[in-house]
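G., before I forget:
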Amino acid sequence: MFYYLRVYWRLLKINFVYLLAYRLNFINKVISSLGWGFYQIVWIELLTYKTQSVFGWSKNELIALAGSFVIFTALVHFFFSRNFQEFSRIINYGQLDEYLIKPIDSQFLLTFKIVDYSNVFRIIIGFYFVFSIMIKDHIAISLVNVMGYLALMGCGLVMTYGIWSAFSTIIIWHPQLSNLVDFLFNLNGMSRYPKEMILNTGNYLLFFLLPFTLILSTPTKILFQKTLSGDIELLLLFTIIIFIFSRWFWKFALRFYTSAS
Amino acid sequence: MRNFRIFLLHCQQILEYKLRCFIWFLSPIQNCLILILFWLGVFSGQKQIAGWTMGSITAYYFLLTIASSMLNSHIEGDVSEFDIKKGDLVRYLLQPYPYFWRKFFEEMPWRVLQGSYGIILLTGSILIFGNFLQLNINLLNLICSLIMIILAYFISFTYKMNLGFTSFWFEDARGFHQLLEVIAIILCGEVVPLTLAPKYVQQIANLTPFPYIIYYPVTVFQGKYILTDMLKIISVQLFWLSALLILKEILWKKGIKSFTATGQ
């Protein structure tokens, strides 16, 4: 474990050096990242313009949920999304070989090699929106709630990592599917809606979307002291199952990797 | 005939990656379905909001998905990243064929294929769930919306080409492109129909070409306008298309002078 933390610390340093070398690229990414961050808030403002509450969530709570989504997406980008974008190219050109022969877990190296620092600013604006809504709604900000919020968001991050990893592993069989990550981004968009939206339909076919809606609605409920009806347990259960499955699936898929030759 | 052959050539190219193309289409479909689910919640307490019912909003998002797959060109990345930055433009310049039209026929099959996925999905949905779309189609609407669709595609394509041409001067314009993409999504009516947005958003949108690419062709198809309104929309589309084509000429003539490509 400590070995992996030390390796990750090194990766953080290497990526910071890259950032300093390509400053214009960094500024560009910050601009687009902030643009997409503000877009999430405008998105929910527009959707709730003609209504004050939906699915038992007030307009302000939905904006806070969108704020959480801004933070969460920034974290996804910071830690691993760029790496998944490289998946298709690496596998297609047979470059996975060099990851497999290194004395380190190949899935870890492949999915955490690139760190995207430009999203730090997005995290800041996300927190600004969440806490400003809390202040506006006169909700007491307690350390316990904030810690719970962060811990559950961490859980959601692990679950998202598992889902992305499992989906991207399919690229081993179909190396041309470079746009699978774009689809995953869209799937992630589900987490900006409350769980009640899916339950409200009563349609069992849509229940596969439930894990996504738990990712952010659960931590936001903790922060806004809303009633939780088994949300935490479900989130933890899905996280464990999906993460274990993604590990197994990666190892299984590697048996079918044929390199470029 | 020559243009048609070029078009067919690119059709072959995209048919090689059908699954990829399908995944591109899945994303807007998924967004559309989720938005419909969200509106179910909004409409649970009321039957009508600003002239929209659940039926008309469902139709709007379905048509929006097809329209955005069919009409939203994504050529700017290609022009900027590969042709201008990596220098692929050289091979186009050597050909006795205008670059603009070559790119047009390169992009066209993608739009046709994605639009077809949309139409197949819509037909399938109607066959399974019955005619859930509240549409008010008559011959006049149909003719006007067909004209609008053609103009909308040309506006979208010319706008994106111009965006790509900015790379003649900017080393890395991706951030700027993304920012404009965000603004376009909002002003195109991809989040909510513009009449459900605040007044100032509607006013800003009408000053840009974006609603004329998707929002108006979709709402005209839904039968929301009378003939004079439709003619007004078509004339504004013609204005934007002319303005963008003039801008394209200027950008291309100036840009090509600053373009350099290296090789041995």
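The mean pLDDT of chain B is 88. The radius of gyration of chain B is 20 Å.

More on Monday.
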